[in-house]
Structures are given as C-alpha cells and as structure tokens.
C-alpha cells in the first residue's frame, strides 16, 4: 500500500496494513499487519470480538473485586468508632491483588471465548455489541458498583452476625478481631473465586489450574503466615498466631462462609439467567440460535443474507467514534457490485 | 518473492494449541433446567440448615444480669479515679427458673468498650509477651514507660485497661445456708495462646525476672502477683490476662471468666433456685458511658445463643425457593411467547 494511506492508518483507532507490492510504509505504521485481505475477516470477527469481550469481562470483574474488598471498611467504621481499623490482616491486604486474585483474572483475559471461531465467522452480527459499546459502559460500571456495595454489605454483616454474641463450641472466644478478620478474608476469597468461575464460559485446563489453584494457594499461605514457627520468629510482624487452627474447626464459621457466598453470587447468577429472557438485546437472539444449532444434529450451513457486499480495498481504517463507523460500514463509500461468495458480509 | 522469504525469518506464531487459541476446553452454558435446579436445591439446603440452627440456638439457656447501675454506690465511687484504692463490693441476687444442664460458662459482658479502636489494637508488644525481650516496649504508645522512665511490663493500652472485677457466684442451699459455687479459672483460653503465643520469661523466680520493669499504671498488683498459688497461671500465662489480650471485634463483647466445676451439688449443672453474685466492683465503665453485665450460659455445637445465622439461613432458603418458582414461571411464559412467534 502506498505512503498516502499512512495518515489514514495513523488517524484511525485501529489501523490495519496489508503488506504487498507497494512498499512497507503502511505496514510499519499500522497496529496490525498481515499479507492477505481475507485475514481481515478473522481479525475483526474472531480476534477483535474476543478481545473486546475479554477486556469488558476483565474490567467489570476487576472493579467488582476491588469494590468488595474496600467497601467492607465503610461498614466497619460504624462499629470501631470511625478509627479506620482494617477488617483484614495487613499481609492479606498486601497479597490480595498481587497473589490471590491475579492469576484467575489473567486466565480469563487470555483464554476466554464466548463462542468459538467457527460460530464467530458464521454470525457476524455478534460483532455489533463492540460497535455499540454494549458490554462495558457507564451503565455496566454502575451495575458493577451496586453489586460491589451489596456484596460488601453481605460480606461484613453475615460474619458480624455470626460472631457477635457467640462463642466456640467449647465456650472459648470467637468474637475477637483476628477471628473476624479471618472469616471476612476467607469469605471474600471464596466469593470472588466463585464469581470468576461463573464469569468464565470457556474452561481450559489452565483456567481450572489458575482458579482452583489460587484458592488452594490462599489456604496454604494462610496456614504458613499463621504458623507457630513464623509468628515466633517475628512476633511483632506476624501477629495472627493460631487463629486459623482455632477457628477453622468451628462449624459456624463454615456456615457463615457458605451463606455469604450464596447471598452474593445468587443474585448475579439469577440476573445472568433472567436478562436474556426479559430484556433481550439482538445478540441474545443470535446466542439462542447458536445454542439451538449446537443441540441439533449438523445441518446445511446457515447462510446469512448479504445486502451490501463490499469491494476489495487496499486499506481499512476503523474507528468507533460516532460518525465514521456508520459511514464506512454503510457501504456508501464503495461501488456496488454483484453478489460474491465468501466476501465480507456487511449488515446495516 | 521467494528469495525474500529465505532471508527474513518468519515471525509467524507457533502452531501450538495455546498460541492458536485452540486449547481443548469445556464451554460452560447454564441451561434453564440447571439454573432452576441450582436455585431450588440451594433453597432447600438453606431452609433446612436454618431450621436446624434455630432449634439448636433455642436449646441454649442463658441468663444475663446487668449490674452497672444496680450497684449504685460502687458506680458513683468509681466515677472518681482518686478512689481507686477503695474497695467496693456489691451483691446482686437473682432467681434461676430452670436447671441449667450440662457445662455452664460464666462470662463478663461489656457494652460500649471499643477494643477494636485502631490505636488501641496496635498498642501491645508481642515480643514482650512471648518472653523474648521484656524491655521491648516499642509499639506500646502511650503506655511505654512509667513516670520514672522504667519500661512497663506488660506494656500497652490493652494490658493497662484489663478487666479487674472479681465475680463470685453463690447458691442458696437452704434458707440461710449460702455456698460458693465451685468454678474453674483455667482452660479459658485457646491452647495456642496459652502455650505458644504467651510465655513467661522464666518458670521459677518470676518476680526476679521482672526486675527493671514496672506494673501498668491502672493495675493494683504487678504481673507476677496475678495468681501466686499457681505458677502455670501467673505472669503472662494468667488466663484472665490472656483472655483480655485477645481484643474483641465489636464494642459489645463477652469474655469467658469462669467455668463451672461439676462436683457435689453441681454434678449436672446449675440447679434451679436462688443465687447471688458477689462482685468486687473495680472496672469503671460509667465514665465511658458503657455498661457491664454477667452472663451464665450453656452451649451447643453451633456456639452461642445467637439466632442470627439460623434466621438468615431460613429467610435465604425461603427467598430462594420463591425465586426459583418465579424464574420458572418467567421462563415458561417466555418460552411460550418464543414458540408462538416461530409459528
């Protein structure tokens, strides 16, 4: 492609260069470069769409887990004389984002696929949510925030109610601050793990390893940080000696954990089920058709209607700002030609 | 063109499953049947669990006597800190309606005492309490050193504010015969607290080991005189001290004070009848607008008499059940609509 296309590529949100006989300049200035026009279809409909999907899931989950983590302190402020006493062990605060919850999110962002590549190519309508900013916008962020506030409410008040006027089954103390910290921490980790397990639709072995492995790793680190050896070596730094051992054998702790997880996850789960039924968007109908096709025996390939076939062009520039996307995809800037098989179908 | 390919190394990614996004995987999709089953099963589980918990909490017997203002003259005496060396005792009679069967535990309960305040929780020295270094008072602000600059042992605000009322339970056997109910003052703490986290600097000659330190300002006696009759309960190993040092999470809390010793008349627990608490009133809660009470309680496998968990489970279970029926109804109506459109 010629050097006159370079400014167009630079101005676009995503510039794609096709290496060919007209030199390397356009290719060097582009975000993506490949050698054949037909690869553009896969770039957009498969990888671009997956990337948008993964990014949105990652963002909403990341905001959610940090809202839950932090907002618990808001509720606790009413009970500790507004003295900013933390609800977690300081080591938990250090390790939470870095160690306990980083790998599952990484797995989600790398491997998540809502439909596989064959269906993505079959149904280009699935690309529409990306163009309309459907999966992560201000409304989704507010939903995330509300879910986070509600989860933090449950995460604080269920353990509080459990240990408020309670003792262990042998009469000894259970309503101390270290036990409370442990219960809230463990409930939080379980809650965010179950939440990401529900968000992940494409379960590879690596996803299993990251998600369940992180949970197991949390318990290993927990017992290590609260062990006799470490706490006796550095008594002023590791102060939670024996808390895990003395609390984890009490049934009311596990019951409180199960209740917090159920109360936090079930509304999201129900909403995920209800939303395509009661407030469907166009994409939900496509997903329905895909699921319908999957359950039926394989038939003749479903061909979508072609309205405005595009012309082979030498360069493409895409922008998701208002105006340009509609202009380019409307086909008004191309010459009309008779129907071609296997060409990029564009729907209005 | 072919010559160029030989000179430039291929930057094509490997054809491995991971790099080509073709890893073997299971696509998770929750069908309506699965979702409704999950809702229904969780609802049933929660409801049953809730009922079990409520029944077990109801089987506990508990009696609480708030003695802050009953002992009026003692409360007034303690309002003025200069009266610290004047003893004040108070007797609170009460009547136990039914026998308390099984193990009975006596707690003291405080209201409005913020043991979870940020600076209060920090104000302790674990190095000192584990017996490693008695002179380490670094984190104990503002109770690090006494007025003559000697380090305090045990230092810190938590140790300084230790609960120091003595409560004795006595039973009226006959019209004028009162006997003291035998109570145990050991095994009130977690095993790890007593034998690992808290250790005395030496086993014998405890008072010698504490030379060079002073008692906390609010204490009447130094740490090595907390229980001179039992060396396993003296110094940092004193059960009441350890129980107090385990700071509570909320401003209303109760701490284990004594356990019933099941001998003689109290083999099966506390029989019904007239009892009284003889309290040596030392801890001044009225100044901080708090209250204190004594609690006698039995226990079950699920802990104390709090109904919260049972009620929460029952309510959740009922709600999930209703939700599952509602979802089923919505799903059926939507399915009918879809089928009618397809026709």
Automatic annotation (TrEMBL), chain B:
Keywords: Glycoprotein, Membrane, Transmembrane, Transmembrane helix. It comes from the Eukaryota. GO terms for cellular component: endoplasmic reticulum; Golgi apparatus; plasma membrane. GO terms for biological process: phospholipid translocation. Belongs to the CDC50/LEM3 family. This is Cell cycle control protein. The chain crosses the membrane at residues 34-55. The keyword Nucleus does not apply. PANTHER family: CELL CYCLE CONTROL PROTEIN 50 (PTHR10926), CELL CYCLE CONTROL PROTEIN 50C (PTHR10926:SF1).
